[in-house]
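Thread: "does anyone have the structure for this chain?"

Original post by V.I.:
We have the sequence but no experimental structure in hand. Need at least a predicted one for the grant figures.
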Amino acid sequence: MAARISYDDVEVGTELPTVAFPVTRATLVRYAGASGDFNPIHWNEKFAKEVGLPDVIAHGMFTMAEAVRVVTDWTGDPGALVEYGVRFTKPVVVPNDDEGAVIEVGGKVAAKDGEARTVRVDLLVKSAGQKVLGMSRAVVRLA
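Reply from O.Q.:
Generated one for you, tokens below.
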């Protein structure tokens, strides 16, 4: 699969569409099963509060994965991703209700490298109005 976005068509400052990803307790249970991460802070409210958290929180790797989807969907090719990193700044708190939480992700092209034909996308990742990932950056190679 090749990237849908052409390197020549992208400029520094190009904004990626903002996407909202809903997260419920059921989402966390499914992710725990897929990842093998059954830490009780991700499903047991009593335990999460006992260790000082406000409530059950989403897995950090789940939050990272949802955020980078904005980039891979934009390129049209997950294989175009050559580098990705974040800092965890705040947890995504997932209440036990019908709403859950929402992870909101937007991005902007921050740099281009003509020799490598790569672009760096800086992501803004929020939940409940707070930044949950810092220094969230992805580098993608474009045709």
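V.I.: this helps a lot. Residues 60-75 form the longest helix (16 residues).
O.Q.: and The mean pLDDT is 96.
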